[in-house]
Design a protein that fits this description.
The protein has 295 residues and is α/β, with parallel strands linked by helices. The relative contact order is 0.17. Strand 5, helix 7 and strand 6 form a beta-alpha-beta unit. The protein folds into two domains: 86 residues, 3-Layer(aba) Sandwich (Rossmann fold), CATH 3.40.50.10860; 133 residues, Rossmann fold, CATH 3.40.50.720. The chain is 42% helix and 16% strand. Bound molecules: NADPH dihydro-nicotinamide-adenine-dinucleotide phosphate (NDP). NADPH dihydro-nicotinamide-adenine-dinucleotide phosphate binds next to helix 10.
Length: 295
């Protein structure tokens, strides 16, 4: 068997096209331009790249895009004051604070200061609670799991009744919201983590296997149930001496070559879940703007 490769880049492009069209409609019918504010504190190069690509994408969708570059030494009080200002700004519908924050700032406190209706990362307790109780109509859902669900939908449809899903990883950003989304879609879901015994055997039960671990090529081909849909959330940089001295490459949490031989469908890394994350951020911002009109 050779698995179908789930093209996250193409799905993300489709989503961005839809978001751009809906944003134009919102502007034409209600005079509202979705506004996204991205705050970055410090000069971490990886974060800088993420933030500028988010801002660029927002502008390409026709959004009002604001980027606040704050110095590393910004105090927690000053960052909170910036969040409060953006909460009150009617031209801003989505606020994202790029993580990680410098150590002297309590990230949890900052995230909980964002108005829940502008929390496009979906990390505020109100949005976490809505997702946990199945209120997905109004919840803002974290972008990576929400994007992963769209990829699952593409191969298996919206209703996952009768399917068994295993999520490996229990972070608040990926694993736990993924669990809730799969459950909402009627899958029978198990969440695994570093204390789970016999992970290979558990993975072999999964019609849908989601890997969000942060360990390169950790899940092997023979852990995968034949025909399963495999969603690889992991992004890991490893040495690639075959590309030349000092070179690196990006791999997922799943042994991709092994998965291709066994799975029914698999997301590549890069080009799978990654592009969906940023596209979902645009979709969440649009949703926040639409909800500001409909209440
Ligand atoms: P975290 O480090 O927060 O969580 C990792 C999870 O994996 C934990 O729950 C941990 O278990 C579990 N784990 C670690 N080792 C094992 C093991 N040996 N067996 C079973 N479970 C294990 O990571 P994130 O959820 O933030 O990210 C996961 C991966 O996804 C990373 O590679 C990250 O880069 C990537 N990522 C990709 C995104 C994208 O846009 N594609 C966005 C966000 C993340 P325990 O809780 O017991 O410690």
């Amino acid at each position: 068997m050779t698995a179908t490769v789930i093209d996250g880049k193409a799905r993300a492009e489709d989503l961005v096209t839809e978001v751009t069209q809906r944003a134009a409609k919102l502007r034409a019918e209600h005079g509202v331009i979705p506004g996204l504010a991205v705050i970055i504190v410090g000069s971490d190069p990886a974060s800088q790249i993420y933030v500028s690509s988010k801002s660029r994408r927002a502008a390409a969708c026709g959004f009002h895009s604001v980027q606040r570059d704050l110095p590393e030494e910004t105090s927690e009080a000053d960052l909170l004051a910036e969040v409060v200002r953006l909460n009150a700004d009617p031209t801003i519908h989505g606020i994202l604070v790029q993580l990680p924050l410098p150590r002297h700032i309590d990230a949890g406190k900052v995230i909980q200061a964002i108005a829940p209706e502008k929390d496009v990362d979906g990390f505020h307790f109100i949005n976490v609670g809505k997702l946990g109780t199945g209120e997905t109509e109004t919840a803002l859902v974290p972008c990576t799991p929400a994007g992963s669900m769209l990829l699952i939908e593409k191969v298996l449809g919206k209703d996952l009744s009768g399917k068994t899903a295993v999520v490996v990883g229990r972070s608040n950003i990926v694993g736990k919201p993924m669990f809730n989304l799969l459950l909402k879609a009627n899958a029978t879901v198990t969440i695994a983590h570093s204390r789970t015994p016999d992970l290979p055997a558990l993975c072999r039960t999964a019609d849908i296997l989601v890997a969000a671990i942060g360990k390169p090529e950790f899940i092997k081909g023979d852990w995968i149930k034949p025909g399963a849909a495999v969603i690889d959330v992991g992004i890991n940089r490893i040495d690639a001496p075959e590309k030349g001295e000092g070179k690196t490459r990006i791999v997922g949490d799943v042994d991709y070559a092994g998965a291709l031989k066994v799975a029914g469908a698999v997301t590549p890394v890069p080009g799978g879940v990654g592009p969906m994350t940023i596209a979902m951020l645009m979709a969440n911002t649009l949703r926040a703007a639409e909800q500001s009109v409909t209440g």
